[in-house]
Write a structure and sequence with these properties.
By secondary structure, this protein is α/β, with parallel strands linked by helices. Helix content is 37%, strand content 9%. Helix 2 crosses helix 3, helix 3 (36-43) crosses helix 10 and helix 5 packs parallel to helix 10. Bound molecules: iron/sulfur cluster. The site of iron/sulfur cluster has 14 residues, from helix 12 and helix 13.
Length: 367
């Protein structure tokens, strides 16, 4: 049996579904579908990169999200793709045995392993507020980071401190990029992040032997390059000026825009509306279920701006998909009048697609 057939057999899927997955992964990374065969080759390669996975201040939700998708192949793929040498939650061994294996793995794979860090790093008082094996987590991160081939900060806590870093931040919790500020760190924020974003990042690294393109906050552009607001399924309601005013009111029941309830989608970059969660079909993401976006993938937003505080729209962007032609508000407020409604709630604009385009053009002019 070839390596490919053995991998496909282990995943419990057929060859067609495997190739469909590779094509979908290429698409999710914004790449041509012609790279799918290279992705398939990388996934089925017997050379699996060693991964050391550390836990700091966190809830293990990122690991749960990765390993408990409703789609059965995703967790199998992750565990098949990498050699998970050390993971404090999943390791069978514990105590000195686990610590010994960690050091053996680092020694054998220096410069070759991928270091994944889940959780914030407390730096106050020498990092005494989070210790593993009797050592400050801060010291472990500083020691292992420079020895890794790549460092991935998974989740909002590892990316910039997450909820632990919310004021008054008693432990001085911060993100891995702040601690390892002299080496590149890939951040995959989210509370939790979508497992596909982690998987795609690893697959990109294995396929092309380099990291995917990152934004100025170290996030893969393929996943965090667009605002949630651009791809939101409720965007036509925003453009038409149809808002939910309170939880359970008529607008909320009808699936109107959640901007007035504090939705942070207009200032939050992530692919949640297109990836969805739990693979259970449309609507499986916070806004889809009727809850305003919390902004967990943005450093200055999630856990820092109160949940129901209305945001402002500094740089209006057009929707990624055109609004429906019948975009008339039931109360009589026309699409054009949405700008007035937006102003009334403190927004810069609640605009039609054309109005958004106009505003974007104004931005280009420096306004
Ligand atoms: Fe969607 Fe929120 Fe934007 Fe409304 S404000 S369209 S709910 S992202």
């Amino acid at each position: 049996m070839s390596n490919r057939d053995a991998t496909i057999s282990r995943l419990g899927i057929n060859r067609r579904d495997f190739l469909k997955f590779c094509t979908a992964t290429a698409t999710a990374m914004g790449l041509s579908t012609s790279v799918a065969p290279r992705i398939a080759a990388a996934i089925t390669s017997p050379n699996r990169p060693p991964v050391i996975w550390l836990h700091g201040q966190e809830c293990t939700g990122c690991t749960e999200s990765l390993l408990r998708p409703s789609h059965p192949t995703l967790d199998h793929l992750i565990l098949d793709l990498i050699s998970l040498d050390y993971h404090e939650t999943l390791s069978a061994g514990a105590g000195h045995q686990a610590e010994h294996f960690l050091h053996e793995s680092v020694k054998a794979n220096t410069g070759k392993f991928i270091l994944v860090i889940e959780g914030a790093v407390p730096v106050k008082d020498g990092g005494v507020y989070c210790q593993v094996g009797g050592r400050p987590f801060l010291d472990m991160v500083k020691e292992l980071g420079p020895q890794a081939a790549a460092v991935i900060a998974i989740g909002s806590c590892a990316s910039w401190g997450g909820i632990q870093s919310a004021p008054p931040n008693p432990t001085g919790a911060t993100g891995v990029p702040t601690v390892l500020n002299d080496i590149p760190v890939i951040s995959i924020p989210g509370c939790p992040p979508h497992p596909q974003n982690f998987l795609s990042t690893v697959i990109h690294y294995l396929t092309f032997k380099k990291l995917p393109a990152l934004d100025d906050k170290g996030r893969p552009l393929f996943a965090y390059g667009r605002l949630i607001h651009e791809n939101c399924e409720r965007r036509p309601h925003f453009d038409a000026g149809r808002f939910a005013g309170r939880f359970g009111d008529e607008g909320h029941r009808k699936g109107y825009c959640l901007f007035k309830l504090g939705c942070k989608g207009p200032i939050t970059h992530a692919n949640c509306p297109s990836q969805l969660f739990c693979e259970v079909g449309s609507g499986a993401w916070p806004v889809g279920t009727g809850h305003p976006c919390f902004g967990c993938t943005e450093k200055e937003v999630g856990f820092h701006v109160p949940l129901f505080t209305q945001t402002y729209i500094r740089n209006p962007t057009p929707a990624a998909t055109p609004p429906p032609v019948d975009a008339e508000k039931e109360s009589g407020l026309t699409a054009g009048g949405a700008a007035v409604a937006g102003a009334a709630v403190g927004a810069a604009v609640g605009a039609t697609m054309m109005a958004g385009k106009k505003a974007a053009d104004s931005q280009d002019d420096g306004e």
